[in-house]
Specification:
single chain; about 500 residues; alpha+beta; nine-stranded mixed beta sheet; three-stranded antiparallel beta sheet; about 40% helix
């Protein structure tokens, strides 16, 4: 397929107004699925499960199998609705969404249609420069996830060109909350940034509630981005496209920008936009056509006959409201102030998804500066090299313990990095790695003096230069001593000893 012609972004925004909408699916981390007692693969206890091992008759749509609602999923959905500023329905109902689902055995999805559990809310989104944007929420409704298809035999892993497809039903029936925004106007040039910030805000909210891991790369959080354009000065909305399942916040930003540029060029050339789903391609930074997209009222919904309405007591709603955590925006501002970080320093932590890790490291005894240094520096570097998340490499407690060894003079920064590698490799706690590898700084002045004397003997002119006031010459001796001690010496102490000997 030929590459699309893109209009310059600034030019596109001169001619057209971008209009946005987002549908974000959140997989809940309950122990079991939405309508069965099968283990939930969105719970970390079951991440390593083999395909088609986390299933029950209900998940496969077997005859006679009846759904039973997961109470914890209901509570989590109410908490999320409240955190989104929504009203909670006194009564909400499940419906059967009839659509061809090759990865749902019963060939329909149990969802909510005209009676969602939460409705009419808003989310405050903070952009990188501190600008606040309010995103209106239309609804948040409960449903079940579909299974997962793996396309085999093709070169791209997609259905096009594949010889056959495999179905993993583990994901079928995983509890979902779908958050649907109202139409979003007025974002203009900041539309891509708003898209990214909104998804980040939803991630922070659900993580704060503890109801989902919210990992985009694992599909715990999935965003469908609706983009349309209308000419400046016109009232009529343009035709929208829906870019599906974008798997990172950076990609959400890029996908919205790409669609604005693509649609603008088509419209400027006199073409029309097709209402369709589109697939995001991370490697090329482009979208491609999926399937023609129906409007919601084109789907066939029927009341779910096997499930009663959900009617949460007002006491339960107020109990969950009282238990809501601090809003993410307020929390970030409080932490930045408490930690004394500059906006750029805090942004590094936030953008890396390291806020919780840094907070836990500080709680374990590290200073804010040290916690930030380790997580945004060496740990992130090692994570990138291993293509893993930094938070999966090492615990905050071990990072704090590592810094305490540095503060105590047991380790230099260089030695600490070696210890960190040992901890990540599974060799134990920082102290255990120090003991096993023999990495502690040599604090015996006798050993250091012996190494200094040996270095001075090899460079006899250096002492004379130091005694003549050229103290920078001590650097050559320090380097030689550090090499002889295999880095296990305190350079500052070595310098002190050299100057003491020069003064004798």
């Amino acid at each position: 397929m030929a590459a699309a012609t893109l209009m310059d972004f600034d030019k596109a925004l001169e001619l057209f107004e971008p209009v946005l909408g987002f549908e974000v699916h959140v997989e809940l981390n309950t122990n079991t699925k939405m309508f069965s007692d099968a283990p939930n693969p969105a719970n970390e206890a079951y991440h390593a499960a083999e395909p088609n091992t986390l299933i029950a008759p209900v998940d496969l749509g077997l005859p006679g199998a009846l759904p039973v609602v997961n109470e914890t999923a209901i509570r989590s959905s109410i908490s999320l609705g409240l955190a989104l500023g929504c009203s909670i329905a006194e009564s909400s109902r499940f419906a059967r969404k009839n659509y061809f689902y090759p990865d749902l055995g019963k060939n329909y999805q149990i969802s909510q249609y005209d009676e969602p559990i939460a409705f009419e809310g808003s989310v405050e989104v903070e952009l990188e420069d501190g600008t606040m944007v309010t995103i209106p929420i239309e609804r948040a409704h409960m449903e079940e996830d579909a299974g997962k298809l793996t396309h085999m035999g093709g070169s791209t892993g997609r259905i096009q060109g594949a010889e056959y497809s495999l179905v993993d039903y583990n994901r079928a029936g995983v509890p979902l909350v779908e958050i649907v925004t109202k139409t979003i106007f007025g974002t203009d040039h900041r539309a891509p940034e708003v898209a990214k910030a909104y998804v980040a805000a939803i991630r922070d909210i659900v993580r704060g509630l503890g109801i989902s891991e919210a990992r985009l790369e694992r599909g715990n959080l999935r965003c469908d981005a609706n983009v349309s354009l209308r000419r400046r000065g016109e009232e009529k909305l343009g035709t929208r496209t829906e870019t599906k399942n974008v798997n990172s916040m950076r990609s959400v930003e890029r996908a919205v920008r790409y669609e604005i540029q693509r649609q603008a060029q088509i419209l400027a050339d006199g073409g029309t936009i097709i209402q369709e789903t589109r697939h995001w391609h991370e490697d090329t930074g482009t979208t491609s056509p999926g399937r023609p997209k129906s409007d919601a009222d084109d789907y066939r919904y029927f009341p779910e006959p096997d499930l009663l309405p959900v009617q949460p007591p007002r006491e339960l709603i107020e109990e969950l409201r009282a238990a809501l955590p601090e809003q993410p925006v307020a929390r970030r501002r409080r932490l930045m102030d408490e930690w004394g970080f500059t906006p750029l320093e805090f942004q590094d932590v936030r953008n890396g998804g390291l806020l919780d890790a840094v907070e836990a490291t500080i709680a374990a005894g590290a200073t804010p500066a040290a916690a930030r240094k380790w997580w945004t520096g060496e740990i992130t570097r090692l994570a990138n090299a291993q293509e893993k998340d930094a938070v999966d490499l090492v615990s905050p407690e071990n990072v704090a313990a590592l810094q305490q060894l540095v503060d105590a003079g047991t380790l230099t920064d260089k030695l600490a990095r070696q210890v960190l590698e040992g901890v990540i490799a599974g060799e134990g706690t920082p102290q255990e790695v120090v003991d096993a590898r023999g990495l502690a700084v040599v604090s015996d002045d006798g050993a250091l003096i012996a190494a200094i004397d040996e270095a001075l003997a090899a460079q006899p002119d250096v002492m004379a230069k130091i005694q003549d006031g050229k103290v920078q010459a001590a650097g050559a001796i320090i380097g030689a001593v550090m090499k002889a001690m295999k880095g296990q010496a305190d350079a500052a102490r070595v310098r002190e000893l050299i100057l003491e000997r020069a003064a004798q």
